């Protein structure tokens, strides 16, 4: 609604208020929606395009000036500034809806859809011929190569495949599915029912697991997650929170007949942990449900099918998914593991998840931490509950490498400088073999600096034990 006012007529005020009230019924969080649309469309800070101006005495008046997609002004009134701002923002959202700048579910479109003219202009530029000179000897080599290896006809451009789809696809959206990476399409009732029944049948064949401390708190954890949108789980190292809590959530959903709607994204701080934890959880679920567990890290992925899925990924991967699906449609739970390892990406993810909670009330966020200021994190998310899970406490006896070397018939030379700090992997392998042979029964935990070192030690151990590579 454009404002062009010299004097205020009571009937006009009443009409404006009714229009704003109706708009608020359609857009429950108009300020956030308006900001999201402008951010997606312009790839800029929404404050550069949205300005609120306050006027009035007892009755507060808010003048909202919107500079995208064209200069627009909206005026609304209320008993408080917040009320007046929300009404003005709701009127602006209604205007964007009328202009076709929101999807059928009143959510932002994609950046490409807002800038389709720029995409088409770029496409035309790419089609224009570019002239360049190729040396004669290279032309001859290219002709010989093309004769040996014929080139198939090129396919259409990626942006044509992604955005020139038929408008008859009413059930699909412009969001990508965070689990599969394809265009998001909600499950039909029949498909969800079929998947849920299949999951329940396959769950009956899962193998019982060794008890962990987290198992004794299973019902408390599930109850807190059901009753609250955000839960902080403070679990000691070794309590089983990383592998067991996603399993609890999936098991509860499957046994209640809603397994198809349980789709979790679990973040890990490092690529190695995302891949290894996914393999571990898949192994614990057994062969019938292993394919429902996947991972995605930079340059590597093994994605699960949609409908009852666990996807382990790094924080950076989830941030990338939020760009193509800002409200995480299709995700039932987001689990942020090791949240106490504060870095820029994790803090940025928490900020975005807090915004997602406002526009997607169906999503659940579980923040898992071993140490740190859990109370501060809980306070940031509206004083959400903290569930504490103790871990195992073992007696620790220290052994020193210098005492062990004579038994291994080896010597060890310390590095001359801090730059020469690469581990002696042969010595690491020998120490593990000695502990396995002479030590008490149980697992051996070995810390190594990177994936290459882990692979080399694993291959050395497999060679010593006569285990074929890839069989473990």
Automatic annotation (TrEMBL):
Molecular-function GO term, any one: G-quadruplex RNA binding
Source species, domain of life: Eukaryota
Ranges of residues in domain Helicase ATP-binding: 222-390
Gene Ontology CC entries for this record: cytoplasm; nucleus
Keywords: ATP-binding, Helicase, Hydrolase, Nucleotide-binding
Transmembrane intervals: none
Protein name in the entry: Helicase ATP-binding domain-containing protein
């Amino acid at each position: 609604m454009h404002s062009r006012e010299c004097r205020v007529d009571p009937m006009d005020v009443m009409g404006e208020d009714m229009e704003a009230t109706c708009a608020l019924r359609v857009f429950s969080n108009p300020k956030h929606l308006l900001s999201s649309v402008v951010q997606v469309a312009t790839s800029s800070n929404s404050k550069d395009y949205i300005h609120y101006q306050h006027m009035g005495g007892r009755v507060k008046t808010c003048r909202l000036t919107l500079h995208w997609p064209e200069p627009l002004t909206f005026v609304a009134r209320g008993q408080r500034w917040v009320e007046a701002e929300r009404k003005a923002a709701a009127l602006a959202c209604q205007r964007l809806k009328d202009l076709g700048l929101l999807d059928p579910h009143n959510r932002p479109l994609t950046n490409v859809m807002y800038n389709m003219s720029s995409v088409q202009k770029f496409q035309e530029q790419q089609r224009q011929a570019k002239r360049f000179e190729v040396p004669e000897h290279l032309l001859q080599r290219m002709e010989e190569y093309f004769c040996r290896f014929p080139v198939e006809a090129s396919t259409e451009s990626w942006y044509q495949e992604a955005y020139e789809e038929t408008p008859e696809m009413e059930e699909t959206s412009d969001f990508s599915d965070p689990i599969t990476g394809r265009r998001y399409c909600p499950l039909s009732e029949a498909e969800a029912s079929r998947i849920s029944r299949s999951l329940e049948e396959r769950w009956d064949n899962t193998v019982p697991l060794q008890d962990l401390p987290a198992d004794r708190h299973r019902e408390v954890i599930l109850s807190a997650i059901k009753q609250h949108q955000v839960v902080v789980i403070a679990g000691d190292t070794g309590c089983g929170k990383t592998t067991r809590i996603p399993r609890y959530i999936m098991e509860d959903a499957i046994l209640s007949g809603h397994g198809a709607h349980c789709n979790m994204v679990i973040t890990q701080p490092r690529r190695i942990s995302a891949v290894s934890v996914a393999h571990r959880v898949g192994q614990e679920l057994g062969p019938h449900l292993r394919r429902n567990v996947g991972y995605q890290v930079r340059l590597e992925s093994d994605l699960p099918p949609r409908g009852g899925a666990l996807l382990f990924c790094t924080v950076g991967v989830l941030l990338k998914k939020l760009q193509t699906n800002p409200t995480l449609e299709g995700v039932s739970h987001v689990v942020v593991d090791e949240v106490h390892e504060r870095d820029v990406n994790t803090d940025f993810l928490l900020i975005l998840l807090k915004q997602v909670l406002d526009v997607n009330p169906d999503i659940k966020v579980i923040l898992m931490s071993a140490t740190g200021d859990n109370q501060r994190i809980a306070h940031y998310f509206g004083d959400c509950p903290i569930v504490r899970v103790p871990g195992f406490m073992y007696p620790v006896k220290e052994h020193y490498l210098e005492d062990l070397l004579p038994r291994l018939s080896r010597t060890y030379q310390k590095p001359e400088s801090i730059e020469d700090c690469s581990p002696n992997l042969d010595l690491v392998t020998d120490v593990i073999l000695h502990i396995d042979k002479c030590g008490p029964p149980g697992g051996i935990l070995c810390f190594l600096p990177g994936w290459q070192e882990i692979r080399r030690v694993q291959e050395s151990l497999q060679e010593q034990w006569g285990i074929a590579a890839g069989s473990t």
